[in-house]
Amino acid sequence: MMLRGWANALAVLLCLPLLVVALSPLFLEAPQWSFVGGAFLWEHLGGSLELAFGTLLLALVFGVGAAWVVSVFDFPGRRVISWLFVLPLALPTYIAALAFAGLLGPTGTWTVFLREHMGIEVDVMTMPGLCMVLALVLFPYVYVPARAAFSGGLSDALEASRTLGAGPWRRFVSVGLPLARPAIAGGGLLVLMETLNDYGAVKYYGLHTITTGIFRAWGGLYDRGSAMRLAVLLVVLVITLIVVERMLRRRGLRTTDHRPLTRLTLSGPRRILVLIVCSLLVLMSLVVPIGALSIDALSVPGAHLLPELFSATLNTLHVGAWAAGFTLLVALLLAWKARQQQGRESRLGQLAELGYVVPGAVIAVGAMALAGLLDRAVGIVGTASGLALIGSLPLLVYAFGARFMAVAAQPIKAGSAQQPMLLDEAARTLGVPASRTFLRVNLPLLRPALVAAALLTALEVMKELPLTLIMRPFDFDTLSTTVHEYARIEQTREAALPALVIVLCALLPVLLLHRLHDKRRG
To answer: To 10 degrees, what angle do helices 492-521 and 93-104 make?
Structure first.
């Protein structure tokens, strides 16, 4: 009973930032709202929608096209390319935006070359340019579920359509897309969430979105009430997108079988064409940004940067380990509670995972407002400003837990679901307490899921920028905030080294998780 009470209490605790944001218009004044609610609001809302749907459109083209090609056709290098398509997930969007700005910005290396030798003017630091950059990084969110849908369950339908004389394009449009629509919609929703959450890339490119509006209202106008109202608007926008995605899932068609798809071997010019197109996508989404960062990092004498880099890396690992540990603890308690209820997940557990679909800036302003209320209510005096929670590491770890609870919970829930309830019933028959059964039987079997959950959570913490910027303790720089600070003062080459460290640290968990996923699928 005591563990169940702890599980409920921690789940409620993780829901509080969102609750504070939702209720903030009732108790928090917004003196600048007359200005923020006018042209300011519409400009930032329009920017968010334009960026989100422009990025989504391109990510769907890249992700669905790549998934269809590697699932349906066999060509030289297909297996390697199918792996490389996943790796852009290791690139935070603001780092990719920084790398492409150095190449295709107004004074970028490629821009100068094209201007001087071909008379072509390009500038990636525009709304369409940022849509392209974000799509190149985020398309794996569509690619991974679409590839899983295309690779299994379509064999009968595709063979039937081919027997009836349908060509490759018609099989793709009339059979493949309708059957994979639920998976594609889920991936598209993640692309929209990541785009709405982005702050570093949008800020560096000088564009206006709701997320940058929250920072402007909070740090520029010093109006927390207006920032909270913008956060509420962002939550409403996110919930609307989730509802639309659920509707698309419900109306999706069911797959027709469970046989792996037999791939068609390409030959002649079509094989070369497919290989070139796939290589171009890998080149632009992975090789070019990492290559540009590597060249920038080598061009700057790095000795004077090493102490700062070392400190930022330690801070990142420190906060990542605490956030992963805290989030895993809550996820394990909720998993234990679900097993006591014969596998039924509680409503509180589901609500605690809602933070993942909400931008980090919203969680941050909610947690900051909650901490401010608690500080004033309790009257804690812990610092020179009289505030004990705001600007503290425990508050930052808590906010990461509220933001990434779903990331840790999903692998643990999947691992727990694979353990038959007969194990628990057998232990109960022998008189073993439920908590001891969980520790001695369930927990060891969950080890691969725990590793995956810890890696995923640490990866997300390492990449997260808006939440870290708002909530980090004073003089506490992580790798992501170091990259942002260098980019903010136009020292992009100095930003390359910490950016590369983030990418290299992120590559390992992405590769490991993709391998685990492939093993599970056999």
So the answer is: 130
- Could you read off the pLDDT of 287-314 as tens digits, one per residue? 999 998 888 888 877 667 788 888 888 9
Positive/negative CA dihedral, 100, 102, 106, 110: negative
Give how far the C-alpha of residue 69 lies from the chain's centroid of Cα atoms, to the nearest Å: 25
Q: Rounded to whole angstroms, how far apart are CA atoms 481 and 495?
A: 10
**Residue 374 C-alpha from the chain's centroid:** 30
Decide if 336 contacts 498 (C-beta within 8 A).
no
The model's pTM is 0.83
Q: What tens digit of pLDDT does each residue of 66-104 get?
A: 998 998 888 888 888 988 898 888 888 888 998 899 888
Distance CA 259, CA 522 (A): 12
For 182-250, the DSSP string reads HHHHHHHHHHHHHHHH--HHHHHTT---HHHHHHIIIIIS--HHHHHHHHHHHHHHHHHHHHHHHHHHH
Q: What is the mean pLDDT of the chain?
A: 82
41 Cβ neighbours under 8 A, 6+ residues apart = 213, 230, 233
Which tens digit of pLDDT belongs to each residue from 161-199? 777 777 777 888 887 788 788 788 888 888 988 898 888
Residue with tokens 């798809």: 261
Tokens standing for residue 356: 């993942």
pLDDT (0 to 100) of residue 386: 53
The contacts of residue 98 (CB under 8 Å, 6+ apart) are 201, 204, 293, 483, 487, 492, 495, 496, 499
- CA 355 to chain centroid, in Å, comes to 12
Report the half-sphere exposure of 346 (CA within 13 A, side-chain side).
Answer: 21
Q: What whole-number distance in Å separates Cα of residue 132 and Cα of residue 279?
A: 17
User: How many C-beta neighbours within 10 Å does residue 473 have?
Assistant: 15
